[in-house]
């Protein structure tokens, strides 16, 4: 259902007779909440239930009004939880200790904050090796990594030299594994597993190695990129501990010529971008696939890649002609020492941006020219947002997120509501020095964008966590 301010969301609740997921019609008028039950939305309270024996879900769902009104309706009739408890006691083998764990759990504020101070977007530079065509044409090396591995030096036309500093420089000899370790991706993934929102995107000229960095070669584990290595780490981490129970779902889509196509259902070729107060911008009607193990994520990635829009031109024989975004939604639940329940939703966006390019260099015509113009327009919009956000005088004013679908979707990531890493991929060749400079200028601006990542639970999410919790079956 549409999640905007005027439309309802689907809220599956427990049937008071047999605990099936069903509509709210089965819930009768119940007495007001007892005095011992409290709910403080301003302290990020999460409504949780430890009913471990839910049955199969019903196909019918009543659409409820979302947000605070819905939360308050549930709380004002919180006797329904007592009803569930009584019925659970009658119809299942659950013990009193199981039933008593139905409670409202307030998450510790300090636990949610990764850092008490603001930080900036981490920007990494990856220099790819020379390709066969560049070697054949005798192009010279114009990009150098200094010994500190943070400073990059460029030999510009006219004998000029320029130096720029970033979080880290990954030189052309870095393997995929070294790249993964250098970016400290594992630390980011750990943050996502406890409920933070993470965005990792690759930016740069066509043919600079963005897709290789993000995807790699999926047929050879040695050459896995950041995405498959992240999948491996996440499931290894989940399977090695018992403190939290997890449920992971994934979406995968592309933005091609300002149209959004679901890569998991390529018949959906023109999905709308919606906005609502609680969620911000989001893509409507995407397929969300359950992923129970590493292989599920890898198969999903392969399927999506097979549906991507690919083109060929002078700069790249296998060029992605779209911006591709794969998102993992990580739902989890755990039990504290006091038997309280904590339910979280982490999120990871893996973003492979289409490459910026000059029409003269790529020699595109016809439909390919339209593609290039669309790509360059959306990347220009992204650059304008980065420029505004990096300027202290402008960041409090209007940021032009609505100029493209790409910037709408990345607005939360760029505006400091989560942890963001930018990987700028560049060519070492003097032939590409102007495009390299353009990429590095964007990167230099991006590293001034500030963020402070805090786990935030809005009313709509709190309600949906009832449903999530039941399916995770924490107890």
From TrEMBL:
Chain positions recorded as ATP binding sites: 204-211
Highest taxon above the source species: Eukaryota
Region Disordered, annotated ranges: 30-63
Annotated GO biological process: microtubule-based movement; mitotic spindle organization; spindle elongation
Keywords, ordered alphabetically: ATP-binding, Microtubule, Motor protein, Nucleotide-binding
GO molecular function annotations of the record: ATP binding; microtubule binding; microtubule motor activity
Biased composition (Low complexity): 46-61
Entry annotated with the keyword Glycoprotein: no
SUPFAM superfamilies: P-loop containing nucleoside triphosphate hydrolases
The name this protein goes by in its record: Kinesin-like protein
Species per Swiss-Prot/TrEMBL record: Anaeromyces robustus
